Amino acid sequence: MENPLLLFPQLNISASKDKPYCKAMKSEIKEEPQKASKPGAKQKRNRLSLLLQKPEFHEGDHLGKPGNLKKAASVSPEEAVKWGESFDKLLSEKAGLDAFTKFLKTEFSEENIEFWIACEDYKKSKSAHELLPKAKTIFETFIQKDAPREVNLDFHTKEVTRQSIVQPLRGTFEAAQRTVYRLMEQDSYPRFLSSALYLGLLQGRAPARAPLRRRSRSFTASDFQGARPDLT
User: Fold this and answer.
1) CATH for 77-203, options being 2.60.120.10, 1.10.167.10, 1.10.1740.10, 3.30.9.10
2) Would the pTM count as exceeding 0.85?
3) Is the dihedral of CA 14, 15, 20, 22 positive or negative?
4) What pLDDT, in 10s, does the model give residues 118-171?
5) 3-state SS record for 90-124
6) Are 176 and 183 within 8 A, CB to CB?
7) Any idea where the domains of the chain sit in the sequence?
Protein backbone atom coordinates (compact mmCIF):
# COMPACT_ATOMS: atom_id res chain seq x y z
CA MET A 1 0.00 0.00 0.00
CA GLU A 2 1.30 3.41 -0.94
CA ASN A 3 2.20 6.02 1.62
CA PRO A 4 -0.90 8.23 2.15
CA LEU A 5 1.35 11.27 2.40
CA LEU A 6 2.50 10.63 -1.17
CA LEU A 7 -1.09 10.38 -2.33
CA PHE A 8 -2.16 13.42 -0.32
CA PRO A 9 0.84 15.73 0.07
CA GLN A 10 -1.37 18.42 1.58
CA LEU A 11 -1.55 16.32 4.75
CA ASN A 12 2.19 16.68 5.22
CA ILE A 13 1.98 20.43 4.68
CA SER A 14 -0.82 20.72 7.20
CA ALA A 15 1.13 18.74 9.75
CA SER A 16 4.18 20.93 9.30
CA LYS A 17 2.06 24.03 9.71
CA ASP A 18 0.62 22.70 12.94
CA LYS A 19 4.05 22.14 14.52
CA PRO A 20 4.50 25.77 15.68
CA TYR A 21 0.95 25.68 17.06
CA CYS A 22 1.66 22.43 18.91
CA LYS A 23 4.88 23.84 20.32
CA ALA A 24 3.05 26.92 21.49
CA MET A 25 0.37 24.81 23.14
CA LYS A 26 3.00 22.65 24.86
CA SER A 27 4.78 25.79 26.02
CA GLU A 28 1.56 27.17 27.50
CA ILE A 29 0.82 23.85 29.17
CA LYS A 30 4.30 23.82 30.76
CA GLU A 31 4.03 27.41 31.90
CA GLU A 32 0.68 27.01 33.64
CA PRO A 33 1.89 24.64 36.37
CA GLN A 34 4.86 26.93 36.95
CA LYS A 35 2.55 29.88 37.48
CA ALA A 36 0.36 27.86 39.77
CA SER A 37 3.35 26.72 41.78
CA LYS A 38 4.78 30.20 42.18
CA PRO A 39 5.18 30.66 45.95
CA GLY A 40 2.88 33.17 47.56
CA ALA A 41 3.57 35.33 50.58
CA LYS A 42 2.45 32.59 52.95
CA GLN A 43 4.75 30.02 51.35
CA LYS A 44 7.66 32.44 51.53
CA ARG A 45 7.03 32.97 55.22
CA ASN A 46 6.94 29.23 55.77
CA ARG A 47 10.26 28.80 53.95
CA LEU A 48 11.79 31.61 56.00
CA SER A 49 10.53 29.97 59.18
CA LEU A 50 12.13 26.66 58.19
CA LEU A 51 15.37 28.45 57.39
CA LEU A 52 15.46 30.15 60.77
CA GLN A 53 14.92 26.82 62.48
CA LYS A 54 18.23 25.42 61.21
CA PRO A 55 20.66 24.67 64.03
CA GLU A 56 23.40 26.92 62.65
CA PHE A 57 21.29 29.93 63.54
CA HIS A 58 21.54 29.07 67.23
CA GLU A 59 25.11 28.08 67.92
CA GLY A 60 25.91 31.56 69.23
CA ASP A 61 22.35 32.15 70.33
CA HIS A 62 22.79 34.13 73.51
CA LEU A 63 22.58 37.69 74.80
CA GLY A 64 26.36 37.99 74.77
CA LYS A 65 29.19 36.49 72.79
CA PRO A 66 29.29 32.70 72.31
CA GLY A 67 30.62 31.03 75.40
CA ASN A 68 29.40 33.68 77.86
CA LEU A 69 27.36 31.07 79.69
CA LYS A 70 30.57 29.34 80.65
CA LYS A 71 31.45 32.34 82.82
CA ALA A 72 28.74 31.23 85.21
CA ALA A 73 30.99 28.29 86.06
CA SER A 74 33.28 30.65 88.00
CA VAL A 75 30.42 31.90 90.18
CA SER A 76 31.04 31.22 93.84
CA PRO A 77 28.29 29.73 96.02
CA GLU A 78 28.31 33.00 98.00
CA GLU A 79 27.53 34.99 94.85
CA ALA A 80 24.80 32.56 93.84
CA VAL A 81 23.19 32.89 97.27
CA LYS A 82 22.74 36.62 96.65
CA TRP A 83 20.69 35.89 93.53
CA GLY A 84 18.07 34.31 95.78
CA GLU A 85 17.59 37.58 97.67
CA SER A 86 15.62 39.24 94.90
CA PHE A 87 14.95 39.12 91.17
CA ASP A 88 16.56 42.56 90.81
CA LYS A 89 19.76 41.22 92.37
CA LEU A 90 19.81 38.32 89.93
CA LEU A 91 19.43 40.54 86.85
CA SER A 92 21.90 43.16 88.10
CA GLU A 93 24.84 40.76 87.76
CA LYS A 94 26.11 39.52 84.42
CA ALA A 95 26.63 35.95 85.63
CA GLY A 96 23.16 35.93 87.15
CA LEU A 97 21.63 37.21 83.93
CA ASP A 98 23.49 34.53 81.98
CA ALA A 99 22.37 31.75 84.31
CA PHE A 100 18.74 32.90 84.28
CA THR A 101 18.76 33.13 80.48
CA LYS A 102 20.14 29.61 80.28
CA PHE A 103 17.34 28.42 82.54
CA LEU A 104 14.67 30.13 80.41
CA LYS A 105 16.06 28.39 77.36
CA THR A 106 15.27 25.05 78.99
CA GLU A 107 11.69 26.27 79.43
CA PHE A 108 11.43 27.63 75.88
CA SER A 109 10.70 31.13 77.17
CA GLU A 110 13.96 33.03 76.69
CA GLU A 111 12.12 35.63 74.58
CA ASN A 112 11.00 37.23 77.85
CA ILE A 113 14.50 38.08 79.07
CA GLU A 114 15.57 39.02 75.54
CA PHE A 115 12.69 41.49 75.34
CA TRP A 116 13.58 42.92 78.74
CA ILE A 117 17.21 43.42 77.70
CA ALA A 118 16.14 44.96 74.38
CA CYS A 119 14.04 47.47 76.32
CA GLU A 120 16.96 48.25 78.64
CA ASP A 121 19.17 48.95 75.64
CA TYR A 122 16.42 51.01 73.99
CA LYS A 123 16.19 53.32 77.00
CA LYS A 124 19.93 53.94 76.75
CA SER A 125 19.72 55.27 73.17
CA LYS A 126 22.00 58.28 72.90
CA SER A 127 19.93 60.29 70.42
CA ALA A 128 16.30 60.63 69.36
CA HIS A 129 16.95 59.42 65.80
CA GLU A 130 18.00 56.02 67.19
CA LEU A 131 14.63 55.47 68.82
CA LEU A 132 12.44 54.91 65.76
CA PRO A 133 14.41 52.06 64.10
CA LYS A 134 14.99 50.39 67.47
CA ALA A 135 11.33 50.76 68.43
CA LYS A 136 10.17 49.19 65.16
CA THR A 137 12.60 46.31 65.53
CA ILE A 138 11.49 45.56 69.08
CA PHE A 139 7.81 45.82 68.20
CA GLU A 140 8.07 43.61 65.11
CA THR A 141 10.22 41.04 66.91
CA PHE A 142 8.49 40.76 70.26
CA ILE A 143 5.08 42.43 70.32
CA GLN A 144 3.08 42.43 67.10
CA LYS A 145 0.78 39.51 66.36
CA ASP A 146 2.67 36.39 65.25
CA ALA A 147 6.02 38.09 65.94
CA PRO A 148 8.92 35.60 65.76
CA ARG A 149 9.72 36.13 69.47
CA GLU A 150 6.28 37.20 70.67
CA VAL A 151 5.96 37.82 74.40
CA ASN A 152 2.79 37.38 76.41
CA LEU A 153 1.08 40.79 76.60
CA ASP A 154 -2.56 41.79 76.94
CA PHE A 155 -4.30 43.48 74.01
CA HIS A 156 -4.44 46.92 75.67
CA THR A 157 -0.68 47.00 76.32
CA LYS A 158 0.04 45.88 72.77
CA GLU A 159 -2.24 48.53 71.31
CA VAL A 160 -0.84 51.36 73.43
CA THR A 161 2.68 50.32 72.45
CA ARG A 162 1.75 50.08 68.77
CA GLN A 163 0.44 53.63 68.81
CA SER A 164 3.50 54.88 70.66
CA ILE A 165 6.08 53.67 68.15
CA VAL A 166 4.80 56.15 65.54
CA GLN A 167 6.67 58.83 67.51
CA PRO A 168 8.62 56.78 70.05
CA LEU A 169 9.94 58.10 73.34
CA ARG A 170 12.35 56.47 75.74
CA GLY A 171 9.39 55.32 77.81
CA THR A 172 7.52 53.73 74.88
CA PHE A 173 8.03 50.16 76.11
CA GLU A 174 7.77 50.79 79.85
CA ALA A 175 4.31 49.22 80.26
CA ALA A 176 5.20 46.17 78.18
CA GLN A 177 8.56 45.73 79.87
CA ARG A 178 6.99 46.01 83.31
CA THR A 179 4.43 43.33 82.41
CA VAL A 180 7.09 40.90 81.18
CA TYR A 181 9.32 41.64 84.17
CA ARG A 182 6.47 40.86 86.56
CA LEU A 183 5.73 37.64 84.67
CA MET A 184 9.33 36.47 85.01
CA GLU A 185 9.56 37.51 88.65
CA GLN A 186 6.38 35.74 89.70
CA ASP A 187 6.54 32.71 87.42
CA SER A 188 10.01 31.88 86.12
CA TYR A 189 12.19 33.21 88.95
CA PRO A 190 10.81 30.89 91.68
CA ARG A 191 11.33 27.89 89.40
CA PHE A 192 14.86 29.06 88.64
CA LEU A 193 15.66 29.11 92.37
CA SER A 194 14.56 25.49 92.69
CA SER A 195 16.17 24.32 89.45
CA ALA A 196 19.10 21.93 89.20
CA LEU A 197 21.07 24.67 87.45
CA TYR A 198 20.82 27.08 90.38
CA LEU A 199 21.18 24.44 93.07
CA GLY A 200 24.32 23.26 91.32
CA LEU A 201 25.78 26.77 91.49
CA LEU A 202 25.00 26.93 95.21
CA GLN A 203 27.06 23.78 95.63
CA GLY A 204 29.89 25.09 93.48
CA ARG A 205 29.16 22.93 90.44
CA ALA A 206 29.48 24.30 86.92
CA PRO A 207 26.15 24.32 85.05
CA ALA A 208 25.88 21.99 82.07
CA ARG A 209 25.44 23.64 78.71
CA ALA A 210 21.83 23.68 77.54
CA PRO A 211 21.20 21.71 74.33
CA LEU A 212 20.68 23.63 71.09
CA ARG A 213 17.07 23.83 69.98
CA ARG A 214 15.35 24.34 66.67
CA ARG A 215 13.34 27.52 66.93
CA SER A 216 13.24 31.07 65.61
CA ARG A 217 16.42 33.09 65.88
CA SER A 218 16.74 35.12 69.05
CA PHE A 219 18.53 38.39 69.52
CA THR A 220 22.28 38.43 69.92
CA ALA A 221 24.84 40.95 71.08
CA SER A 222 25.06 42.46 67.57
CA ASP A 223 21.38 43.38 67.76
CA PHE A 224 21.55 45.14 71.12
CA GLN A 225 25.04 46.16 72.04
CA GLY A 226 25.75 47.23 75.58
CA ALA A 227 22.54 45.88 77.08
CA ARG A 228 23.01 46.06 80.82
CA PRO A 229 20.53 46.14 83.68
CA ASP A 230 19.49 49.63 84.75
CA LEU A 231 20.43 49.91 88.43
CA THR A 232 19.09 53.43 88.91
Assistant:
1) 1.10.167.10
2) no
3) positive
4) 999 999 998 989 999 999 999 999 999 999 999 999 999 999 999 999 999 999
5) HHHCHHHHHHHHHHHHHCCCCHHHHHHHHHHHHHC
6) no
7) 77-203
